[in-house]
Specification:
six-stranded antiparallel β-barrel; 384 residues; binds pyridoxal-5'-phosphate; Lyase, Ornithine Decarboxylase, Chain A, domain 1; alpha/beta; eight-stranded parallel beta sheet
């Protein structure tokens, strides 16, 4: 019998969530953000599952893009941080990757590279990143028009899209988002070009930001970046279910400590279950005492420190639980956001932090056909 820990990935739920994002786009354009191995869900499988819906994918770097191309993905791929070194540029051009251009050093290296090109019919689409207030990446608002016009003078440059990233879109009372939107819109009107601003919280919570190309990430995976009370949050369907089983159950009398550091001490006779899942799988070691864990669908409490391959739960709420019974660490019945709160973090880190040793099991799609690089054979339509 194999270790029971597995991440079940519901690709039909993924498609449902992408469609929700798309429905928010007046222009009908949403680039699916599948960086960091599609937030831990498996970039190739996710791209394959969205191949007939999403007109483009976004990743963090050329290595992530190359992996998709090698697997047979044919959509345009956007590199969200552009290139890191100029030697990526020939490959970028060859594969038709689109790049974010965020800094002066990139502009100079790009200009030098393009100037050295022999005649080429290759076209490089640029997403010109503007720092509208987040102060992480992007050209200053005041210099963006100049950079735009310089780009227009370079050979092989195709479409230029103005883009920016929002710092506070998950805070629906913040004045930062309207201010950032206003700065980007003013530039767009001056330059008369397409734009892209909205990430998941903006798509879900800021209708005014739903312009041009949307860039949904976390919402595709069914985790809301906004509070559960937001209308759209309830429409998202969780894509990943991290499930395992009890591999041991024991009774302990009152006053006995459980696990490393003896953090949890029984207050009364208590049944303790051991679950095959630990920080060596990506489950956070700093999960607090009482973090919810579902055993046979019943909410139980984490009891004691998470170890590398196992964690322990207080089975008081589920007194009949036995070895082999099913455990959900997060999923449809236990939102990853709720677990994240108990770990003082966000769903993004739990999902992207799931380590490779956890097998991903794809529902609604033949994973062999996805992973062996023959996407042509994948059935794209997956009715629920
Ligand atoms: C530039 C950019 N756009 C879009 C996204 C997607 O964000 P989210 O997952 O919040 O939708 C990210 C993710 O970090 C990003 O860096």
């Amino acid at each position: 019998m194999a270790r029971p820990l597995v991440a079940e990935i519901d690709l039909a739920a993924l498609r449902h969530n992408y469609q929700l994002a798309l429905d928010c786009s007046p222009a009908g354009t949403a680039v699916a953000v599948i960086k960091a191995n599609a937030y831990g869900h498996g970039a190739i499988a996710v791209a394959a599952a969205l191949a007939d819906l999403a007109p483009a994918f976004a990743v963090a770097c050329i290595e992530e893009a190359d992996e998709l191309v090698a697997a047979g993905i044919r959509q345009p791929i956007l590199l969200l941080e552009g290139f890191f070194t100029a030697d990526e540029l020939p490959r970028i051009l060859r594969h038709g990757y689109e790049i974010v251009l965020h800094s002066g050093w990139q502009l100079e290296q790009l200009a030098a590279f393009l100037a050295g090109l022999q005649v080429t019919d290759a076209v490089l689409n640029i997403w010109l990143k503007v720092d509208t207030g987040m102060h992480r990446l992007g050209f200053a608002v005041e210099e963006a028009a100049m950079v735009y016009r310089r780009l227009q003078t370079l050979p092989a440059i195709g479409k230029i899209t103005l883009t920016s990233h929002l710092a506070c879109a998950d805070d629906l009372s913040s004045g930062t988002t309207p201010a950032q939107l206003q700065r980007l819109q003013a530039l767009q009107q001056e330059l008369d070009c397409p734009l892209s601003l909205a990430n998941s919280p903006a798509i879900m919570g800021w209708p005014a930001a739903r312009q041009g190309w949307l860039r949904p990430g976390i919402m595709l995976y069914g985790a809301s970046p906004l509070g559960a009370e937001q209308a759209q949050s309830g429409q998202l369907q969780p894509v990943m279910r991290l499930r395992s089983e009890l591999i041991s159950v024991r009774w302990l009398p009152a006053g006995e400590a459980v696990g490393y550091g003896a953090r949890f001490v029984t207050q009364r006779p208590t049944r303790i279950g051991v679950v095959a899942c630990g920080y060596g799988d990506g489950y956070p070691r700093h999960a607090r005492e009482g973090t919810p864990v579902l055993v046979n669908g019943v909410r139980c409490r984490l009891a004691g420190r998470v170890s590398m391959d196992m964690l322990t739960v207080d089975l008081s709420a589920c007194p009949d639980a036995q070895v082999g019974d099913e455990v959900e660490l997060w999923g449809a019945e236990l939102p990853v956001n709720e677990v994240a709160e108990h770990c003082d973090t966000i769903s993004y880190t739990l999902l992207t932090g799931l380590l490779p040793r956890v097998p991903r099991r794809y529902l609604q799609m033949d994973v062999q056909k996805v992973t062996d690089g023959r996407l042509e054979q994948v059935e794209a339509a997956m009715p629920r």
